[in-house]
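FAQ: What does the model actually see?

It sees only this:
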Amino acid sequence: MESLSAHLSDRRSFFLAVAAFLSGTACGSGARGADSTASADAKRRAPGIVRLVDFSDSGKRIGIVTTEKVIKSDDEWKRQLTPEQFAVTRKKGTEPAFTGKYFKLHDKGIYRCVCCGNALFSSDTKFESGTGWPSFWAPIAKENVAEETDTSFGMTRTEALCAKCDAHLGHVFPDGPMPTGQRYCMNSAALQFVKSEAPK
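And it is asked to produce this:
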């Protein structure tokens, strides 16, 4: 009975994610076809220098830093990440809707990249989108989150990536709240939340 219940739960999560994707609210893209992304992937994996905004764990802006991009082989990422984190961040997968650990989180703090620790989002811009994924109306700094056109599945969307290590985070949609009107629909598996310490 337990295995049947787990099977039905998995099927329910799968169909919820498919329904959300087809309605245009899904954050991830699933695995992409090699033809449409080979050149983009090669460009992202090339060594390079990036300018990012550094933040303390309390969310205080430290300043601009210049650093090398983080580039690792799939085997190296697999040793560092869980299977779900690897599938989402390195293979552009999507966690099922309403299953990620951060979609209902309301604590104060910042969200860092699970792959490289780059500061990505603040709880100050997080909002309830009703999609089942953590959503933000802006990144913590525009330099820290890269955007790229995603044409997978016959759709044109804006993919959000970590600017430091090219981790797939989710997608950006133009239906968020003001002041930006944007919805950064992210996968919890791509994020690491750091809770703000209470003032002493």
